[in-house]
TrEMBL record:
Transmembrane segments: none annotated. It comes from the Bacteria. Pfam families: SBP_bac_5. InterPro entries: Peptide/Ni-bd, SBP_5, SBP_5_dom. The keyword Signal applies. PROSITE patterns: PROKAR_LIPOPROTEIN. Residues 79-398 form the Solute-binding protein family domain. PANTHER family: PERIPLASMIC BINDING COMPONENT OF ABC TRANSPORTER. Keywords: Signal. Residues 1-20 form the signal peptide. This is ABC transporter substrate-binding protein.
Amino acid sequence: MRTRTYALPLLLAVALGATACSGPASSDEGFAKNGAFAVAINSDPGDLNPLTTNIVNAQIVGAYSYDSLLFVDPETVKPEAYLAESWTESPTEVTYTLRDDITCADGTPFTAETAAANLNWILDPANESPRRESVVPSDATITAEGNTLTVTTTSPRPFMLYDLGSQQMVCDAGLADPTSLSAGSNGTGLFQIDDVVAGDSITLTRRDGYEWGPKDTTSTTEGVPKTVTIKIVPSPSTAANLLRSGGLNAAVVSGKDEERLGELTSMSSPTISGMIIYNHNAEMPTADADVRRALTQAIDLDTLTDILTEGKGERAKSLLGEEPSLCSYDSIDGTLPTYDPEAATAALAGVKGAEITLIYDNSTASRSAAAEYVATQWEDAGVKVTLDGGDENYVLANTFAAEDPTKWTASLGLILQSGTPAIFPQYLSGPVPPDGTNFAGIQNEAYVEAATAAADLAGEEACNTWRDAEAALFDAADLVPVSMTPFKMYFSGAESIIRPVGGYLPGAAIRVLS
């Protein structure tokens, strides 16, 4: 089962790698007319407002009700028409020319002016959107004229076409009352939310008049479901049982439960499955880079990868969790300390007696085993460890959103990943909460210098500089990407015309079989 993931731009959540996998279910038996589709997510998504969330499960839900300016083909990572039918880009300006027939679920038109209002809402500091700077550049000027949306910046912005093109767009009434979107929807998507039962399910109904979906999908396309139910199913065993019994049409399942799903078709999407993040608060022993390096050196990351992925994954090579990404590089090789428990014990001798509180995701046996392995390695190196486990929301509340930043020392379960490196600086540098989103308090001047330089570059030169920026993080053991897992979405009685990433599917991709 996937861990909760943060800072993942919606666009790049569908930038799925062309990995070996079985194909979609055969449609020889035909498509269902006005069928029902049920899919699982592994935790409650919380606030569903796409302007204010950076939680992947909320974005998964949003993909049924909200469209973006661009659709990115998951095989080629090339942009295709969605709400925008054409576009232009330069280092400091992008334009999107929108279709002239887009309507919202409430029947009102969606225009370039509405698109500009979305981006300007995010840009307004008073709204405190976490998508400001990560998706919408903080120095952007956003205007609309006719059907054309124009965004300009004062300095080059790599990947701006993709970042802005990924944002799920809200209709005018939702912008006027953003609180109405927390447990509802108001967008241009194929489905609209009817009911939200916290901790249990979200139900949606297909709308009429939808004409602009990916791969020419419309409201009348054969096999498009009439209703969608998104069920919150934390247990992979339960998800597997529901797939086998027909209680679910799609779910991401990993680990031993996959053995029971061999007869079902699946689509694979490798993503980061393990990451250690250290707390850099001045009161923490992990504020010292030598301590972080020693703690990392105490762990055999190959062994930890095998535990986390149950032998099915491989070591992570960077923070770029999707394949292919807008950049492709290995920023880890030669930077992280190599496994040497004796050296770790010697280096940690001066901090013996210090307590490390490891917040971890205990939602699966493999994740609990991974945390226990890490704790054992650290204790063998002479450090006292307190394990503090819980579900994904618990991990979030006690790390990323912790009211007291001194209550955790390290985490194993919180994951930052994206297909574009330009997303990360606001989470890995700059002000700490409540003034910023640098939740771990990382202060790495070499990272900031390289990331600043990369932002003014393009193409391979930019990617090489982003690689150097990440390498600076790993050289200081600020955080440690551990493992990649080829997560699979399994299908029963349905298929997708678009390859998913860890559960993310545009609503228009679904086809229910008869």
